[in-house]
């Protein structure tokens, strides 16, 4: 049996309020000054409020949470895969993780108006930039944002509409960046520089598509504010305003290196799509399912075809080298390539000297390689490999007395250099034929 505490005896005379010190008359249960309960019986008789659960919120939450978000994961994997390929093309060095070289960015599909405008028009650069990132921090921030936003949109709308939203708003973001490039002599004010750019530089990133997902959730919360369960109203709609304002402020502060036009293009296109595209609550049947599956397949096909075009044009000469070649030195009709060719030849001679024991010219050769512009992505890889061989040769350089003796490290470097030389000669033959 459980012991039961006896009820406290009733008050029979005046008392002092413990809250404010006022006199409480006999028979009164509450202080007339502050309203505090002074009667133990009254305090014990107060009932605890009953917890009322929002059953509609629980039902809706269970339905949404049971939906898969496989395409969010697939897009995450695709972004990481492209990043690893770009790192491999950059020599897999620690320095490359913090900023990829321009040849690598362009080879993998970064947006450059010059490449889209010139013949043949590289239209696929409206699609591929949403899977390309400038450095490891850029990738980490965008992929974290995708992990936070993607499952919400995919669970609410389903995978077919989610893929369409992501690809369509990503393209809209790149298009906004493309159309807001002005001539270099344009005078821009403070707010003009927030949106418009005057320099055609490589741009990439998934932020346009991510802002598109924010736009979708923002309009979704407002559009269905009278139908959504209470628990979901605070997560979407006006609840996203602080996130939007904060990101726009960050974009305003870092307008020199942040593509705000792409962000706004993605945000507004996502909001527009959420207004136009119907929403089907989890469990409801729809006759439009087949239509959205076709749209999903079309969006995926556009991405795959775009990257197939990237593979096809992977080793094309860079526009920077083409622009330099348009104004050659008087004594040469192909000055940029001749300069690159000369530096590569000089560096090979320095390597051979370093292997024999004289590493005095390695530092200057490495600096020359770092400062020269490679004509295409393959030559950029060869340039970086030769720079790495030079630095390793310097570390392995023997003293003059020991130079004649066999050394395992030098033999290994010589083998690698022989393979590199073959690759370099093959590239020279291919480049000469195509140019």
What gyration radius follows from the Cα positions, in whole Å? 33 Å
Order of helices and strands: EEHHHHHHHHHHHHHHHHHHH
**Fraction of residues in helices?**
55-70%
Integer average pLDDT: 80
Assign the structural class, choosing from mainly alpha, mainly beta, alpha/beta, alpha+beta, or little secondary structure.
Answer: mainly alpha
Task: Kindly describe this structure.
A hairpin with a 6-residue loop joins strand 1 and strand 2 (23-24). By secondary structure, the chain is mainly alpha-helical. The chain has helices at 40-45, 55-65, 70-89, 94-98, 102-107, 113-117, 136-157, 159-179, 190-195, 207-223, 230-233, 241-253, 260-276, 289-312, 319-325, 335-356, 362-371, 377-396, 408-434; strands at residues 15-16, 23-24. Helices cover 60% and strands 1% of the residues. It is elongated, with a radius of gyration of 33 Å. It has a two-stranded antiparallel sheet.
């Amino acid at each position: 049996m459980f012991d039961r505490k006896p009820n406290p005896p009733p008050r029979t005379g005046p008392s002092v309020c413990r809250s404010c010190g006022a006199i409480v008359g006999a028979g009164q249960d509450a202080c007339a000054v502050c309203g505090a309960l002074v009667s133990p019986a009254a305090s014990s008789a107060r009932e605890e409020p009953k917890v009322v659960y929002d059953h509609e919120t629980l039902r809706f939450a269970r339905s949404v949470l049971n939906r898969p978000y496989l395409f969010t994961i697939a897009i995450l994997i695709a972004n990481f895969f492209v990043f690893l390929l770009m790192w491999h093309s950059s020599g897999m060095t620690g320095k490359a993780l913090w900023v990829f070289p321009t040849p690598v960015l362009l080879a993998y599909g970064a947006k450059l108006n010059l490449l889209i405008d010139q013949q043949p028009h590289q239209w696929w650069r409206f699609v591929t930039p949403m899977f390309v990132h400038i450095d490891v921090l850029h990738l980490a921030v965008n992929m974290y944002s995708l992990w936070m936003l993607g499952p919400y949109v995919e669970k609410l709308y389903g995978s077919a509409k989610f893929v369409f939203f992501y690809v369509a708003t990503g393209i809209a973001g790149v298009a906004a960046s493309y159309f807001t490039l002005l001539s270099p002599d344009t005078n821009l004010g403070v707010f003009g520089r927030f949106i418009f750019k005057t320099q055609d530089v490589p741009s990439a990133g998934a932020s346009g598509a991510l802002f598109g997902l924010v736009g979708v959730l923002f309009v979704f919360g407002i559009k269905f504010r009278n139908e959504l369960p209470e628990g979901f109203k605070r997560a979407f709609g006006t609840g996203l305003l602080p996130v939007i304002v904060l990101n726009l402020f960050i974009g305003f502060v870092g307008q020199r290196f942040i593509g705000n036009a792409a962000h706004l293009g993605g945000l507004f296109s996502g909001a527009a799509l959420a207004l136009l595209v119907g929403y089907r609550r989890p469990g409801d049947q729809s006759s439009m399912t087949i239509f959205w599956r076709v749209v999903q397949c079309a969006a995926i096909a556009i991405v795959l075809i775009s990257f197939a075009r990237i593979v096809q044009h992977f080793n094309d000469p860079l526009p920077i080298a083409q622009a330099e070649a348009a104004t050659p030195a008087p004594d040469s009709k192909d000055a940029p390539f001749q300069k690159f060719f000369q530096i590569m030849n000089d560096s090979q001679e320095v390597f051979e000297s370093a292997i024999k024991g004289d590493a005095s010219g390695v530092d200057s050769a490495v600096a020359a390689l770092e400062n020269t512009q490679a004509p295409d992505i393959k030559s950029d890889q060869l340039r970086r490999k030769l720079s790495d061989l030079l630095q390793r040769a310097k570390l392995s350089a023997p003293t003059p007395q020991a130079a004649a003796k066999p050394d395992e490290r030098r033999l290994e470097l010589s083998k690698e250099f022989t393979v590199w030389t073959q690759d370099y000669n093959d590239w020279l033959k291919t480049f000469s034929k195509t140019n």
